[in-house]
Amino acid sequence: MDKNEQDRTLPIANVGRIMKQILPPRAKISKEGKQVIQECVTEFLSFVTGEASEKCYKENRKTINGDDIYWALGSLGFDNYSEAIGRYLHKYRQNEREKVKQHKKFESAKYQLSYEGSTPKTSRQHENQSG
Predict the structure, then answer these.
(1) b/e for 14-23, b at 16 or more Cβ within 10 A?
(2) What cellular component GO annotations does this protein have (predicted)?
């Protein structure tokens, strides 16, 4: 496998790790077995990405996004994968929205603290600090 080809494949260690997750604990996987799966995965990803890329090209877009992959999987007849990706995208986007909300709450609280810290203290606050 030349360098250019290597750049387009998943690392063999990752492929082996993923394969082991489904196998019994004592099962072994030959190097050749990992390489065959690595080639299949690379071919599959190229196939799906090519379909998504074509869609983007027709829509005059340069960036493939998650929705394009979702569409490509469905378009190519990989409905089970498409459904799984759809669920993942939905959860991912919910999580991202939640992160933004949390960040806004944090920024608001930080602003509130800095604003309160810049106001003059009342005599009661002075008493509490000195006593």
Answers:
(1) ebeeeeeeee
(2) CCAAT-binding factor complex
**60 within a domain of the structure (yes/no):** yes
Number of domains, the chain: 1
pLDDT tens, position by position, 39-81: 999 999 999 999 999 999 999 999 999 999 999 999 999 999 9
Q: Is residue 50 part of a domain?
A: yes
Token pair belonging to 41: 């995965």
The residues near 67 (Cβ < 8 Å, ≥ 6 apart) are 89
Report pTM: 0.67
Tell me the mean pLDDT in the region 19-29. 93
Residue 22's domain comprises 3-114
